[in-house]
Amino acid sequence: MNDIVLQAEHVYKQYRYGVLNNRTFKDDLAEKIAKIRKKENPLSKVGNAQISGRDGQKFYALEDVSFNVKRGQAVALIGRNGAGKSTLLKLISRITSPTEGVIRYKGNVASLLEVGTGFNRELTGRENIYLNGAIMGMTKADVTRKLDEIIEFSEIGPFIDTPAKRYSSGMYVKLGFAVAAHLDPDILICDEVLAVGDVKFQDKCIRKMSELASEHTVIYVSHNMRTLRQLCTSAIYLEEGKLTYAGDLEHAISLYSGASAMNETHRDFTDVRHQGNIGRFVRLLTLDILDVASCEYEMGASIRFRLKMQSSVEVKGLKIGIQLTRPGSDILSTSLSAPFADTKQNEILEETFEMPLGGLAPGEYDARIWLYMVDPMGRMISYDIVPNAFRFAVTQNPEKNQGLLWNEKALGLFRMGDIERIQL
Amino acid sequence: MAIKKEEWSVEIKPAHGWLNVNLKELWRYRDLIYLLARRNFVSLYKQTILGPAWAIIQPLLTTVVFTVVFGKIANISTDGMPQFLFYMAGSVPWTYFARCLEKTSSTFLTNERIFGKVYFPRLCAPISTVLFTMVSFFIQFALFLVFLTFYAVKPNPVVHLNWSLIALTPIVLVEMGLLGLGVGVMISALTVRYRDLALLVSFGVQLWMYASPVAYPASLMITNYPSLAGIYMLNPMAPIIEYFRAAFLGTNTFNPGYLALSMVVTCALLFAGVILFNRSQKTFMDNI
Fold it and tell me: Which of A240-244, A400-404, B17-21 has the highest mean pLDDT?
């Protein structure tokens, strides 16, 4: 039994740089004439070399992308901005066609590239549900069958027969999501539409989404790794239009946020661009991780490192802080230092530090280094912030965990101090 | 991977080929066509003070202007019909056709946002536009019937209804809609590539109007230039307007053969338009 419901085979999508639609009738004519004469097209379309023609350079937004999605899979589509995620979604949702290659699927696809597509301000909520549902491919009968469910989910209640122009923007998106959540397609495609409404409604959306993800085949695009972890089981990673990895979600996330390789113990930040005042008065130049060949540590170990900094002003009581994040996620925790230096103008300092990892559980972490001082009000004045300064791993070692193989999903990311049996 | 081709419900391929118009899919989306037409109607008339009255005011004004300029000042023949009715019988169907053409010709531009976010057969949008325009036509046509009755119940009426021709009205109405749709979508497909065509549309429609017997009787044209009659009647709108006048006013210059020709031309234009449109819908998002 073959369970592949979506398949992409050698998909290419080519765009031109620069002004769109600058074609003239003359260009087209020249192209056609050349074609008839079997000469090389003067405004050649597909060539391996990127030719700069009159109408700008061509580039591939997607290049030789092939993958399979099985029934019931929840796939995260991960990649940096411009990696081709949106283009791929547009191809799958048939908004535009590939330049080469084929995408096939079974059943019907509903794509949510936006919540509330086609909503009209003059129509009532109820009318908009019908219209939006029809745009998404439902028939009137489908919508009627699910109408009560949709209205209930949207939390719009008594306003359902009010024209949508009287709605708050929150009500607007809630209604939009409610329709989308009840589409019931075989394959659902989502592009970061979850961030709608208030926090409570967002939670509701995510719960509904994971419910859908468990029953349907879902392709989900987001930059929020936490939601991806909640919703998806596997991932496709795109880099500059090429599919570089398909498979395990965690691995794709670490590729995505891959600031530095784990075995890189020397890092140079002199080229890091800074914004505003960050990095203007005191800045971090280099980092060296000491004592190890690769940044892997036992639980409870300490990381030793040396920092080289440059200061152009006098600072009293400079401190450093290190914030830990999971690759691609929110901040987990922070480690602070006592004041270690009073800097002079135009001084280069080198200091060595040690950060204990405490109860940090096995896994991969990114460290962000912070140079700051604290004003008398207890507020932080940041001098320099280097995100993704280095990455390290805490290794699995059951001996250190009462014989347990640490599972972060079940046990969390910190191991608190051990419980002791006491006698009073 | 031994998947048989027929197992896949959809294959997305590069935009090659011309003849793959998916009418079955279009039929599946018929509810959407209706809802889009309804949306256009509601949002248009909810925002205006006079509401549907606009649909009446516009052809009324056109007719008055034609009556004054062409009837009174230029004193052009109206085949012996009351001038006001004669011009109205021309301008009401013409307005319907012209609106269909103008609105469908901007399909890609007006629907850019929604087309960029979700797939549905793109033809739904222009078809719904034609349906929605038909509503205005009915309002205008009702007004025309009111004036017609006024003239028809007078003693010794000049106008006399030709009931056997009137029975054809629904067919001719559909034909006009399809003609507007065909030419409109053809232009919309071309405007994606050649933006300046959009500027020509309203000008072109105006020229077309003067090439059709809206402000003058076709008989005037045919008696003055009998050798050009065949070419003149190639314009599918010419026999249509002649038909309206023959059916509702009873003019006797109508030739059913030309109406048949008009239908053939309409089918050809519709076919060409839909194929061009279908071809450009696949990649228009990259060009717009």
Answer: A240-244
- Which tokens go with A311? 């200061």
Q: What would the pLDDT profile of B126-172 be if each residue is shown by its tens digit?
A: 999 999 999 889 989 999 999 999 888 888 777 788 888 899 999 99
A-facing residues of B in 108-147 (CB < 8 A) are: 114-120
Between the CA of residue A265 and those of A289, A355, A390, what are the distances in Å?
5, 15, 8
Interface check B276 vs A, CB under 8 A: no
Two tokens, residue A151 = 């209205």
The rounded percent of chain A whose pLDDT value lies above 70 is 85
User: Could you give the number of structural domains in chain A?
Assistant: 2
Please answer whether residues A61 and A13 qualify as being in contact, where contact means their C-beta atoms are separated by less than 8 angstroms: yes
Looking at residue A40, the DSSP 8-state letter turns out to be P
Cβ within 8 Å, pair A99-B285: no
Residues A141 and A272 in one domain: no
Q: Is the CB of A122 less than 8 angstroms away from the CB of B193?
A: no
A40 has pLDDT over 70: no
Residues of chain B found within 8 Å of residue A121, distances taken between Cβ atoms = 43
Flag whether A213 is in a domain: yes
CATH number, domain with residue A186: 3.40.50.300
Is B282–A96 a contact, with Cβ atoms under 8 angstroms apart? yes
Residue A75 placed within a domain? no
Min Cα–Cα distance to chain B from A12, Å: 9
pLDDT tens per residue, range A210-229: 888 777 888 988 877 777 88
Contacts of A23 in chain B (CB under 8 A): 193-194
Beta-ladder partners of A236 = A77, A246
Contact B97, B134 (CB under 8 A): no
Domain boundaries, chain B: 21-278
pLDDT of A52 reads: 38
Look-up: residue for tokens 């535009």?
Answer: A96
**Domain, as residue range, for A220:** 109-256
The residue among B39, B195, B196 with the most chain A CBs within 10 A of its CB, best to mutate, is: B39
**CA-CA distance, A328 to A256, in Å (whole number)?**
7
Q: Is residue A144 part of a domain?
A: yes
My answer on whether A232 and A320 are in the same domain is no
Same domain, A251 and A280: no
Asked whether the beta carbons of residue A114 and residue B2 sit closer than 8 angstroms, the reply is no
Q: Has residue A347 been placed in a domain?
A: yes
Same-domain pairing of A211 and A309? no
pLDDT exceeds cutoff 70 at B287: no
| Interface residue B11 vs chain A (CB under 8 A) | yes
Same-domain pairing of A330 and A236: no
Kindly give the interhelix angle for B169-193 and B124-152, rounded to the nearest 10 degrees: 140
CB proximity A96 to B under 8 Å: yes
Give B194 to chain A, closest Cα distance, Å.
7
Q: How much of chain B is in helix, strand and coil states, percent to nearest 5?
A: 70, 0, 25
- Composition of chain A by helix, strand, coil, percent to 5: 25, 35, 40
Q: Can you give the CATH number for the domain in which A353 is found? A: 2.70.50.60
The reply to whether A349 and A242 lie within a common domain is no
Which residues of chain A neighbour B24 with C-beta distances below 8 Å?
A: none
Is the same domain home to A139 and A240?
yes
Residue A281 and residue A158 share a domain: no
**Count of C-beta atoms within a 10 Å radius of residue A163:** 18
